[in-house]
Amino acid sequence: MKTAFLVRETRGHWIRDFAAAVRAAGLRAELVTEPLDEAERAELAPLVDGFVVVDDARDAEAVAGVLRDREPAGVLTAAEGIVASTARIAELLGVGRCPAGVFTVTQNKFAVRQALAEAGLPGPRAALFADPADAPRIAAEVGLPAIVKPVNGAASTLVRTVSTVDELVAAYHLLATRLPENADPRYHRPLPGPIDPLRVFLVESLLQGPEYAIDVLVRDGAAETVAVVGKPLIDERKFELGMVVPPFGLDGEHEAAIRAAASAAVLALGLDNTCAHVEIIDDVALGPVIVEVNAGRTAGGAQPALLKLATGIDVTAEAVSLALGTPPPARGTGLPVPVGYLVVYAEGRGRLVRVDGTDEVADLPEVLEVVTIVSPGQLLTDDQEIYAVNVLAAGFADADDLAALHAEATKLVRFELEES
């Protein structure tokens, strides 16, 4: 039996589902990982068929050298920070399905902005922000209010909205102070250019309109959108609190435009035989505008479960089949009612001791399932979206109902953190 290798750099909830999908495709699933402690090895051992321990999971040449004699059927990951290096490993071993260079581009949000503009797709005005002294010029160029974010960020890490030049300067200093403290390794490695993500940030003009997400599957040059996900509940940090399929109040014409924009974007970026999670704002002036393209991975947290409930499509199994070149998985039928997804975040920063209250949430009448994706010992921070507790629900009427359910779940869930 051939083996597919799953590459991880840090702890990831996705490993369980990806390994299961690999096994369902008739392959062994081994985990390529940096050194593990005994507790983590014991936790992961039941999920995979073996371990390949390497010094640096991002060192494509070294990892490819270790795997070459094992004749891998494929090399894949769902860890966004190592999508490009994992694709390079697959490329070196002759099992790549999408050029690694495509993923390198998509990890630079400013490069994505440029590529989409060259393809004629609408987007916000954008500029790189490398010196706080440039704030007046950038404010004039991009316009205010604006969004400031890491140029290679994910999970809404340190995203800030600014309305004045002084706030733009303050946002620069905040990111320059807090990003070096962030545990995510991506921020500590230069981007091509070279761009230092700890010192160079992205400023974009603020878009106005409802926000949506959509997963796109690309197979042999054809893009297929899975479902449009509405995001009616977003907090002041730009964190997603609640999502729903189908979106509230979205008519067929607007849905078709959103699907078309997502498909056009992934094809313009050169993605093929892979997937992408795309975020869109239906701007009042520009229409559907691509906000993010998370290439090489599906939606995070328990969103794949939301999509399977709503559509019958298992996007995790689809992503694995695209990465391996195996036949597409069978599809089922979605529920005939709207399905919601709520996220409960831990407040503050610290190492997780335990999570209480999830059983009480599961007992609420609208709740279908509660999925906790954090575990004791994990460092949690409110600088970024960490989908700590995920609630799948049905039986609600509108956005107000969904908001009320989120408020109730948030009151019930309790996180105990200890200072790290």
From TrEMBL:
<protein>
    <submittedName>
        <fullName>ATP-grasp domain-containing protein</fullName>
    </submittedName>
</protein>
<dbReference type="Pfam" id="PF13535">
    <property type="entry name" value="ATP-grasp_4"/>
</dbReference>
<keyword id="KW-0067">ATP-binding</keyword>
<keyword id="KW-0547">Nucleotide-binding</keyword>
<keyword id="KW-0436">Ligase</keyword>
<feature type="domain" description="ATP-grasp">
    <location>
        <begin position="113"/>
        <end position="324"/>
    </location>
</feature>
<dbReference type="InterPro" id="IPR052032">
    <property type="entry name" value="ATP-dep_AA_Ligase"/>
</dbReference>
<dbReference type="InterPro" id="IPR040570">
    <property type="entry name" value="LAL_C2"/>
</dbReference>
<dbReference type="InterPro" id="IPR011761">
    <property type="entry name" value="ATP-grasp"/>
</dbReference>
<dbReference type="Pfam" id="PF18603">
    <property type="entry name" value="LAL_C2"/>
</dbReference>
